Amino acid sequence: MAEDGARNEAGVPLVEAIREAIIRGEFVPNQRLVEADLSTQFGASRAAVRSALLELTNEGLVERIQNRGARVRAVPLDEAIEISEVRMVLEGLCAAKAAEAVTGEEVRELQGIGRSMREAVSGGDLLGYSALNQELHRRVREIGGQQTASRVLERLRGQNVRHQFRLAMHPGRPAVSLPEHLAIIDGICTHDPEAAERAARAHLRSVIEALREVDAQGPGHRL
């Protein structure tokens, strides 16, 4: 674990700050992560940076190369598909649990996210839609309350989120995934665990197919 209390100058935990920088694409796959540079960038000690990089290595976001230090781990397509296959099972479980546990207030919240997703797609706001996508999946996990599945999914998210983000930016993809997300919301909000699980699994199958299709289009389109 990173040093207790290790935070950047903005007060964000150092591990979280570096993790989010990787996820947002500030550091690209295979880019070296130099401790001295990160120490300056995040306003933290080199010891804290080293500890954070070790934790991120354990999460699968960073890899350490002998005699060359740390770098952002590039997740290949076949591994991204495997991760999505595991997510398909666990996201389905969480959606079913959410349908059983959802409250009236949470129903209104999920429906509000659905409306915002519709607006983002109709307005061509791909970044906004991508953020709402992540928010929806997070809230489904939280509402479902399956802590073990949630921890595994959060870890997998870190490894696969760059594929997910770039897929969301792919032309035409949001229009495909929007009804899939709305079906998940509908299943949960109508307290139908089977429908919610079925919708979540169908969405992840669609993600897997889209990953393969985008990769098959050639180097100019690869994730």
TrEMBL record:
Keywords in alphabetical order: DNA-binding, Transcription, Transcription regulation
SUPFAM superfamilies in UniProt: GntR ligand-binding domain-like, Winged helix' DNA-binding domain
UniProt-listed Gene3D superfamilies: GntR ligand-binding domain-like, Winged helix-like DNA-binding domain superfamily/Winged helix DNA-binding domain
Domain HTH gntR-type: 8-75
InterPro entries: GntR_C, TF_FadR/GntR_C, Tscrpt_reg_HTH_GntR, WH-like_DNA-bd_sf, WH_DNA-bd_sf
The keyword rRNA processing appears for this protein: no
PANTHER family associated with the record: GLUCONATE OPERON TRANSCRIPTIONAL REPRESSOR, TRANSCRIPTIONAL REGULATOR, GNTR FAMILY
Name this polypeptide is given: GntR family transcriptional regulator
